[in-house]
Design goal:
6-stranded mixed sheet, 10 helices, alpha/beta, extended, two-stranded antiparallel ribbon
């Protein structure tokens, strides 16, 4: 079957013309002549049977079909470049580890500890990527995944890593701070994480003596814990976050505990090893180090300021 794929050269030239809104500047960027760029554009239009550019009083502009096509192929060209750079970055000795992690754990717990593992394995090139929380993939593109316990990865070997405890944090200048310190959250503006809309109900349910607002799902919503914590810093409300994620802010005084209560979450974390990498020595070393780091990171008492 014939593949209708233009040459990379033609697509790069079309991309340059689209970005610069003209042939002249595109030719200058690509170190080509004006006629060479124009010829490639004509050949591309002939191949796909659609007019992509047109001459106007203001110069060269994309047609409607050209704008749609450029919007589609520009991302493909960027991905192709990234894939090529990724291949170029491969070590000749093959000591490469691709780790996928849920964002909150990657940012707040794993990354600060990675220097220890790299120090123990100086020849390793580690790539840390986001392991999508709510995306099912038959074949995950990772050697190791650090995810919630209920993550789906068919065929992967899963090992429990650690549990999660959550704390309520607020700005040091929060107006309702004295009341919250006494356990009275009735007037507190609760900030919500979109993927954990029932978290406040679970947290309050574990400590009956706390006085909760009537509506536990009202309030500003955020997609990421990092955004939610930024909102707490800005004194938009009270945030419920994993304790490890705000250790630095609590030590520095940027944030304070709204009250001393810390409750175990119903969520925990596990390590997933790709089916094809179960016998890999580097993967085994990373998993062993990860489990040891989790065992050493016993919950520390956080003080309410």
């Amino acid at each position: 079957m014939r593949r209708h794929i233009p040459s990379t050269r033609a697509l790069l030239i079309f991309d340059a013309v689209a970005r610069h809104h003209g042939v002249g500047k595109a030719a200058e960027e690509l170190c080509l002549t004006h006629s060479a760029v124009s010829q490639q554009l004509r050949q591309l239009e002939t191949q796909i049977g659609v007019r992509l550019v047109q001459r106007t009083a203001r110069g060269t502009e994309l047609t409607e079909a050209g704008r749609r096509y450029h919007g589609q192929i520009s991302g493909d060209l960027l991905r192709l470049q990234n894939h090529t750079l990724e291949a170029m970055a491969q070590r000749t000795d093959g000591l490469r580890l691709l780790v996928g992690a849920v964002p909150v754990l990657a940012e707040g717990w794993l990354t600060p500890r990675l220097p220890e593992f790299i120090g123990q394995n100086p020849g390793c090139s580690l790539h840390l990527q986001v392991f999508p929380t709510h995306l099912y993939m038959e074949d995950q593109p990772f050697d190791v995944g650090v995810q919630y316990d209920d993550a789906v990865w068919p065929g992967a070997n899963a090992l429990p890593l650690m549990g999660e405890s959550c704390v309520a944090v607020c700005s040091p200048n929060a107006k309702g701070r004295p009341a919250m310190a006494r356990g009275d959250f009735r007037a507190a503006p609760l900030l919500q994480l979109r993927t954990r809309m029932g978290a406040w109900e679970e947290w309050f349910g574990q400590t009956p003596h706390l006085r909760a607002p009537e509506n536990l799902v009202a309030g500003h919503r955020f997609d990421l814990f990092s955004s939610l914590v930024a909102a707490v810093r800005a004194d938009l409300g009270v945030g419920l976050v994993p304790d490890y994620f705000v250790e630095r802010e609590l030590r520095s005084g940027e944030l304070v505990l709204a009250c001393p209560h810390r409750a175990p979450s119903s969520r925990g974390y596990s390590v997933f090893v790709a089916p094809s990498r179960t016998d890999d020595a580097l993967v085994g070393a990373f998993v062993a180090w990860l489990c040891a780091a989790a065992a050493q990171a016993a919950p520390r008492e956080l003080k309410a300021a």
